[in-house]
Amino acid sequence: MEISNNVNSDLIWDLDLLADRSKAQEFVLKFENKLCVFSGSVRQIYTNYSMHFPEDYNRNLVILPDPYAFHDTFSHIEEEAVTRTGFHIIPGELIKQKGMFMLIQPKDPEAPAKPIAMRKALEVLNKMRTETDPFLPILVKGDLKPFQDQIPCLHLHRLRLPLIHRASEFEKSELRRVIQTKMQDIAEL
């Protein structure tokens, strides 16, 4: 696989912090095309892409948007519209369970984060949001991290529709629809 030298650097994710690269690869591939990816440098969200780990890029994660699916790329997305959540997706093996779980911090900042099954976590997060500002999870460079220095996890960002000013209402509505449809696939993990 050949990658152009002027590739968007937001789409090359460094895996050096992850002790077990093969475990990280296996983990993150479960989310391929299930979570959209944001690139701040070009202000685009990719909903249709593939993940690769090429030798010539030190087996770092390279996200390649589908060049034939231009309709699956959303442009004019301000960086301010993509915000950190503090929520992490972890594999169930970490807590001796099957499936994927989300670590959600309780209202008390002193209390430890609580693992919640993915489907239930997404239901809770959707109830906490409004119709005009729904919970729309998204990934950015750096979201694949080590948890407790060994297990790979994904930090989630979220797209804030009210903070998008350069896209049309139709584009925002379509982006919302696509992300919410993909959330159903995430709930099944």
- Kindly report how far apart the N and C termini lie: 29 Å
Judged by helices, strands and strand pairing, the structural class is alpha+beta
Strand proportion = 25-35%
Number of strands: 12
Q: For the report, how would you describe the main beta sheet?
A: 9 strands, mixed
State the order of secondary-structure elements, H for helix, E for strand. EHEEEEEEEEHEEEH
The number of domains is 1
Q: State the assembly state of the protein chains.
A: single chain
Taking all Cα atoms into account, the compactness measure Rg is: 16 Å
Number of helices: 3
Helix content: 10-25%
pLDDT < 50 runs, ≥5 residues: 1-5
Tell me, rounded to a whole number, the average pLDDT: 89
Q: What would the principal axes of the Cα set say about the shape?
A: globular
Describe the structure.
The chain has 189 residues and is of the alpha+beta class. It has one domain. The chain is built from 3 helices and 12 strands, in the order βαββββββββαβββα. It has helices at 21-29, 118-127, 169-187; strands at 12-13, 36-39, 44-46, 49-52, 61-65, 73-74, 82-91, 100-104, 114-117, 137-139, 144-147, 151-159. Strands 2, 3, 6, 7, 8, 9, 10, 11 and 12 form a 9-stranded mixed sheet that branches. Strand 7 and strand 8 (100-104) form a beta hairpin. The longest helix has 19 residues, at 169-187. It is globular, with a radius of gyration of 16 Å. The protein starts with 11 loop residues before the first strand and ends with a helix. Residues 1-5 have low confidence and may be disordered.
